[in-house]
Amino acid sequence: MIEISPFGSERARKYHLVNEAGMQVNLTNFGARIVEILLPVEEDGGLRNVSLSASSDEEYKTKDPYPGATIVPVAGRISKAQAEIKGKVYHFTENEPGRTLHGGVNTANEQYWDVEVNEAANSVCFTITLSDGSNGFPGDVRVKACYRLTEDNTLEITYTAQSDKDTIFNPTNHVYFNLTGDVRQDVADHQIRIAAETYAPLGEDNLPLGRLESVEGTPFDFRVGGTFAQGFTLEHPQNQLVKGYDHPWVLNQVAEPVEVVSPDQRIRLTVTTNQPAVVIYTYNFPSQDMAVFHGAFSLECQGLPNACNVEGFGSILLEKDQLFEHVTSYKFTWF
Ligand code: GAL
């Protein structure tokens, strides 16, 4: 049974999914968002919430609109708040000086999406239409974000979209994790493995410089595993710049390119995705006391940020009537 309950203001609803193993996921139509991911890992059979959560739509509105939300149409930063799409230059909302972040203002992560519940699939799909010209992006873009909780403890996220004009599209989910279940503890001792030979260094404006660099010999090398602590010491100028990690890695084409293990080794999170990159942000600028400094990390699977303006960063072009599909799964194992 997918239970539906109020989640703050009148239009906000919470959708509660559970599987045989007792894993639970709470979602909301406000931003097509993951609210909580609860795992039955505690010794007394208790649940541990491993994601950064708020308790109502209003709390997300006042504190931080991003945790757990669907970010569309284009995740990350766009340089000069503009891009050329099929020969025409479009100007987007500049919500950071000289840049567009996460699709602009009043974006779908702050809207109430329509909902379809599918009991048989243990899934909830949220739909919305981004209207032509909103935040400057062309096309009426019909977006569907589906979440499915499987019996093998996987939260599978699928985005499909179609536009009636040529546009750019690069969605992600902005869930933050802290596998200790306590966002008052920093995530320094989480062990992480990323199957990536290269990452994209950033400039002063937090935008990728436009080139990829080898992870070899840097705190960005997680190929055989490491901890976030190796970047939190801030010895490397790229970690100093953003006070931790806020970087894209280009993923190798392997089955499970990212894996994170909790400091108590009780939980393993493995990520699969059909996307080329993961952006990891370690909550370096805490927002309104939702978590401490470095109290959470995101694993945003997507095309490389600013791909629309950087030669060699891949294409995020979504042509008129083309069907877009993105699938990312977060699988949990506990011991
Ligand atoms: C991340 C981004 C960070 C920060 C955050 C939102 O995806 O890389 O720089 O803007 O979103 O608080």
From TrEMBL:
InterPro entries documented for this protein: Ald1_epimerase_CS, Aldose_1-epimerase, Aldose_1/G6P_1-epimerase, Gal_mutarotase_sf_dom, Galactose_mutarotase-like, GH-type_carb-bd
Pfam families: Aldose_epim
Residues spanning the membrane: none
Keyword Zinc-finger part of the UniProt annotation: no
GO BP terms: galactose catabolic process via UDP-galactose, Leloir pathway; glucose metabolic process
Class of enzymatic activity (EC top level): isomerase
Binding site for beta-D-galactose: H174, V175, Y176, D246
Pathway(s) it belongs to: Carbohydrate metabolism; hexose metabolism
GO cellular component labels: cytoplasm
Family per record: Belongs to the aldose epimerase family.
Protein name, UniProt field: Aldose 1-epimerase
Record organism: Streptococcus zhangguiae
